[in-house]
Amino acid sequence: MEADATKHLWWQEGIIYQIYPRSFQDSNGDGIGDLPGILTRLDYLSELGITAIWLSPIFPSPMADFGYDISDYQGISPLFGTLSDFDALVAAVHGRGMKLMLDLVPNHTSDQHPWFLESRSSRDNPKRDWYIWQDALPDGAVPNNWLSMFGGNAWEWDEPTQQYYYHAFLKEQPDLNWRNPEVQEAMLNVMRFWLDRGVDGFRVDVMWHMIKDEMLRDNPVNPNYQPHMATYEQLLPVYSTDQPDVHDVVMQMRHVLNSYPERMMIGEIYLPLHQLVAYYGVDGKGAHLPFNFQLLTLPWEARQIAAAVDQYEGVLPVDGWPNWVLGNHDQPRITSRVGKEQARVAALLLLTLRGTPTIYYGDEIGMRDVPIPFEEVQDPQGLNMPDKNLSRDPSRTPMQWNKSPNAGFSEGKPWLRLARDFARENVERQKEDPYSMLTLYRRLIKLRQQEPSLRVGDYVPVYSDTQLIAYIRQLEGHPRFLILLNLSHRPGYFKAKDSSLTGVVAIATSPDWEGTPVNDTISLSGDEGLVIRLT
Ligand code: GLC
Question: Which GO BP terms, alphabetically (predicted)?
Answer without folding.
Answer: oligosaccharide catabolic process
